[in-house]
Amino acid sequence: MDSVRSPEWPVAPLGGIAANSAAARYGSPTGPQPAASAPPPHRSPATGVASVPRPAPAAAPPIPVKILIAGGFGVGKTTTVGAISEIAPLTTEAEMTTAGIGIDDPGVRSAKTTTTVAMDFGCVTIDRSLKLYLFGTPGQARFGFMWDDLARGALGALVVVDSARLDDCYPAIDFFERAGLPFVVGVNAFDGRLAHDLDAIRWALAVGDHVPLVQFDARDRLSVRDALLVVLDRALERATRERKS
């Protein structure tokens, strides 16, 4: 089959510029440009041996850090993970039914209608070198068997507390004290206020001064971030102390 070309553009001479090229239509400020060629390899003045430039090394991926978000039933663990996660959090929520009346009590101030039956999962990048993977534990005692598996490989934990229902967080604090895992107590300010001040809460929980106790809002991303940074500081302090010993 014969080739077909547009009659508007004449055939370029051998080695010349095509008539429909940008250089021919708009001109070139510096005139005709020589054909591009690969840069010559660098030769060492000492040895005279040519060396090829090496590509820059790829940036190292961020270090993964596993953090638990634990606490009693209905204290705001799922809300905490969802507020800070940079991905759509994985949740395992199930509708609360009448079978849970008298067993699962979220408190009179809560409008909670679902509950976590396995775990919550989310992640957040702190900087180029660090990425947190957040695992929220179920709050009901009947799911306590999962805590050992979720805690495996974790560097620290944030124990979320409702100041109006302090007795619900005792099992979580006991668990991390027995496991020897660094943890921070985060008192969730429901409706922006606490039922007791932080000193009274520390006394009621019987935790030592070495355990950080902070107030935060589980719905606010920046507030959750600040609480997680305290957990990281606690884990780093623990790791530094163990390395020196």
What features would you describe in this structure?
The protein has 245 residues and is of the alpha/beta class. 24% of the residues lie in helices and 21% in strands. It has 6 helices and 10 strands; from the N terminus they run H-E-E-E-H-E-E-E-E-H-E-H-E-H-E-H. The strands form 3 sheets. It has a 6-stranded mixed beta sheet with strand order 6-7-3-8-9-10, with helices on both faces. A two-stranded antiparallel ribbon has the order 1-2. Helix 5 (198-205) links the parallel strand 9 and strand 10. The longest helix is centred in the C-terminal third of the chain and has 24 residues, at 221-244. The chain is globular and about 75 Å long. The termini are far apart.
Detail the topology: elements first, then pairings.
Blueprint: H1 22-26, E1 42-43, E2 50-51, E3 63-71, H2 77-84, E4 93-95, E5 114-116, E6 120-127, E7 130-136, H3 147-151, E8 156-162, H4 170-179, E9 183-188, H5 198-205, E10 213-216, H6 221-244
Parallel strand pairs: 3-7, 3-8, 8-9, 9-10
Antiparallel strand pairs: 1-2, 4-5, 6-7
Rg, nearest Å: 31 Å
Average per-residue pLDDT, rounded, comes to 77
Which residue ranges are poorly predicted, with pLDDT under 50 across at least 5 consecutive positions?
A: 3-7, 17-22
State the oligomer: single chain
So what's the CATH class? Alpha Beta
Percent of residues in helices comes to 10-25%
Strand order of the largest sheet: 6-7-3-8-9-10
Shape: globular
Number of strands: 10
State the helix count: 6
Proportion of strand residues: 15-25%
Which structural class matches the secondary elements? Answer: alpha/beta
| Cα distance spanning the termini | 84 Å
Order of helices and strands: HEEEHEEEEHEHEHEH
The CATH architecture designation is: 3-Layer(aba) Sandwich
Number of domains: 1
The name CATH uses for the topology is Rossmann fold
Q: CATH H level: which superfamily?
A: P-loop containing nucleotide triphosphate hydrolases
User: Mind describing the biggest β-sheet?
Assistant: 6 strands, mixed
